[in-house]
């Protein structure tokens, strides 16, 4: 009887371990699939931004009243195209950060480099609040926007000049 009990106990333990490993594997697969889907959607967005930033006809769609994309009414197509390019650059960094290709400690450096660009600073001044609202509830996105906002505010050209 002792041998049968030992065999049953070992079998039960092995089955339980297999179930735990299987559940962990399913959870990991689901997480990877979600990350994969996010990367594909982000790639589509980046492709669209790239096309709109070089094609005036597509950029006009961005500024038309039919599309509620929150482009200021007084912004001309050329400026809109510049803003789309800045959005593309910022969105690319955001994707790299979300995918773990840019570490949290590196993010302030990259944000500072972005804000060295006049068009990125203009974009952030115009749309930074909107991006902050969009990030609400997503801890990683909130951190990203805080770091970019800090980089924009601490850039030397954002500081008032002493007279």
Structural class computed from helices and strand pairing: mainly alpha
Helix content range of the residues, please? over 70%
Overall 3D shape: elongated
What's the total number of strands?
0
Q: Oligomerization state of this entry?
A: single chain
Unreliable stretches covering 5 or more consecutive residues: 64-69
How much is the average pLDDT?
A: 82
The rounded distance between the terminal residues' Cα atoms is: 95 Å
Number of helices: 6
What summary fits the major beta sheet? none
Reading the helices and strands in chain order gives HHHHHH
**How much strand content do the residues show?**
under 5%
In angstroms, what is the radius of gyration?
24 Å
Topology diagram in text:
Layout: H1 2-54, H2 56-63, H3 77-98, H4 107-115, H5 118-135, H6 139-154
Can I get a quick summary?
By secondary structure, the protein is mainly α. It contains six helices and no strands. Helix 2 (56-63) crosses helix 3 (77-98) and helix 4 packs across helix 6.
């Amino acid at each position: 009887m002792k041998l049968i009990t030992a065999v049953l106990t070992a079998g039960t333990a092995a089955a339980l371990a297999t179930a735990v490993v299987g559940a962990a594997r399913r959870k990991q697969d689901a997480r990877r699939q979600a990350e994969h889907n996010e990367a594909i959607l982000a790639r589509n967005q980046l492709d669209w931004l790239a096309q709109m930033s070089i094609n005036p006809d597509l950029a006009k769609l961005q500024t038309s009243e039919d599309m509620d994309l929150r482009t200021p009414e007084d912004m001309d197509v050329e400026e809109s195209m510049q803003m789309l390019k800045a959005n593309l650059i910022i969105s690319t960094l955001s994707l790299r950060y979300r995918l773990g290709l840019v570490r949290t400690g590196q993010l302030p450096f990259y944000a500072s480099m972005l804000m060295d660009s006049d068009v990125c600073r203009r974009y952030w001044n115009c749309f930074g609040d909107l991006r902050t609202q969009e990030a609400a509830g997503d801890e990683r996105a909130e951190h990203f926007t805080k770091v970019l906002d800090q980089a924009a505010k601490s850039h030397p050209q954002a500081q008032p000049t002493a007279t």
